[in-house]
Specification:
The chain is an all-alpha fold. The protein contains two helices and no strands. It has one domain.
Length: 93
């Protein structure tokens, strides 16, 4: 008779790690969608005859900079917090 081979279970990630992963993925997805929408608005503004190119850039540029800066700051903050938690775990061992 062949006995089934027992395979070790994969470790279950911590709930906080799962939450951090999901939030990071949501923020990254939102950033990508927002950037694509703004680039599309830039491109439409460039070739639209009714729209002055200078005005479309004046209107969208601050929002673009704010969005990019905020999202990148958020993502880097999450990464820094993960690094700090890893350092504290290493010290306890």
């Amino acid at each position: 008779m062949n006995k089934p081979i027992r395979q070790p279970r994969k470790p279950v990630p911590d709930t906080k790690e799962k939450l951090t992963l999901y939030v990071t993925l949501m923020v990254s997805t939102t950033l990508c969608i927002s950037v694509l929408a703004m680039v599309a608005a830039f491109l439409l503004g460039l070739w639209a005859k009714e729209v002055d190119n200078g005005e479309i850039f004046k209107m969208i540029s601050p929002a673009f900079s704010t969005l990019i800066g905020g999202m990148i700051g958020f993502l880097s903050g999450i990464k820094l917090m993960q690094n700090e938690e890893d350092k504290h775990k290493d010290r306890k061992c």
